[in-house]
Write a structure and sequence with these properties.
alpha/beta; 342 residues; flat; twelve-stranded mixed beta sheet
């Protein structure tokens, strides 16, 4: 799909310097721009490339005044970075604007389908499932019995949503994500053998939740595993049964959260963090990557290490950690002198 500079300026409420009718059909980095592409300049470190880029259109700040000849048509806006982000969102909406039901698909007669939905080929929709308006479900997805997916949610190829789960509006579930698999519940007998504990709860995703590729969220043993409004989960995260994650918390890849742990609002959790079960983490907590959390955490704490320490304490301790070989040598030298004098 092609857009003119005039059309783009209209979307961004920007001013055009150059050919208003020049067309673009793709996006590019400013240093890699080619004819027919659109780019942007927001970071002053990249200013040199505005004079050499082959991009047909460049979005720049209104404060930008070229010192040399610029071959690209410029669209001047208040904030080039925010405007380019807005354009990416607009472009993505157009790219994902599919509708209709591909074939083959398997949709239960008791399922309820909203308006303007898209079901990709080889998708299965189970009994009594409810699919809201403008929902996009891409090929090879599984939507179990009694699942509810609310308006404007996108489910990408290969995602699985097990029975009874509820997905809010304006959510994004990426490829390979599994929502509602059984929690890890087993009981041992006197022979050391394990029997499965039935997991009869569900998973609830509230509105504006993003789930990364290959992330798994287990259903509750009883009740619900709950991901609150605005939570953003990266790829390859494990959320165990009966976990609750508070509003607007963000978690980076490869983090694992054990069962029945409660995480507060507006937390930031780095990659490869391990969190034990049955603890409470407060609001506004920051946890550095590869930390291990084995205790309750109060509001506003900043943690690092395994087991995790306060961030300041960790950095002070690290000064000693890295100097241990030197300190050990000093102690050995002192011992030798003392023993020699004896």
């Amino acid at each position: 799909m092609k857009f003119t500079a005039e059309q783009i300026a209209g979307i961004l409420e920007g001013d055009i310097v150059g050919n208003a009718q020049v067309e673009v059909s793709r996006l590019s980095k400013i240093e890699e721009g080619t004819e027919g592409s659109l780019t942007f300049l927001a970071n002053p470190k990249y200013t040199q490339y505005i004079y050499t880029t082959k991009a047909s259109i460049a979005i720049v700040n209104k404060s930008f005044e070229p010192e040399h000849t610029v071959n690209s048509t410029l669209i001047k806006v208040d904030d080039a970075y925010k405007s380019f982000s807005k354009l990416l969102e607009y472009y993505n909406q157009i790219k994902l604007n599919k509708s209709g039901i591909d074939q083959p698909t398997s949709v239960s007669e008791s399922a309820q389908l909203g308006e303007n939905i898209y079901l990709g080929a080889f998708t299965y929709v189970g009994d009594n499932a409810k699919i809201g308006d403008n929902v996009k479900i891409f090929p090879n997805c599984y939507i179990g019995d009694n699942v509810t997916i609310k308006d404007n949610t996108v489910v990408f190829s290969g995602a699985k949503i097990y029975s009874e789960c509820v997905v809010g509006s304006n959510c994004v579930i990426n490829s390979g994500a599994i929502i509602g698999a059984d929690g890890f519940g087993f009981t041992p007998n006197d022979k050391g053998e394990y029997s499965k504990v039935p997991q009869i709860g569900n998973v609830i995703l509230e509105d504006f939740v993003d789930i990364g590729a290959a992330t798994t969220i287990d259903r509750a043993t009883l009740g619900s595993t709950i991901i609150r409004r605005g939570v953003k989960l990266d790829n390859q995260i494990q959320i165990a049964h009966n976990v609750e994650i508070g509003k607007n918390t963000v978690i980076a890849a490869q983090t694992g959260i054990a069962g029945s742990t409660k995480i507060g609002e507006n937390c930031q959790i780095g990659g490869q963090v391990g969190i034990v079960g049955h603890i409470t983490i407060g609001n506004n907590v920051k946890i550095q990557a590869q930390s291990g959390i084995g205790r309750n955490v109060a509001d506003n704490e900043v943690l690092q290490g395994s087991p995790a320490l306060g961030y300041g304490d960790y950095n002070k301790s690290y000064v000693y950690f890295k100097n241990l070989p030197r300190l050990a040598k000093t102690i050995n030298d002192i011992e030798k002198k003392v023993n020699g004098n004896n």
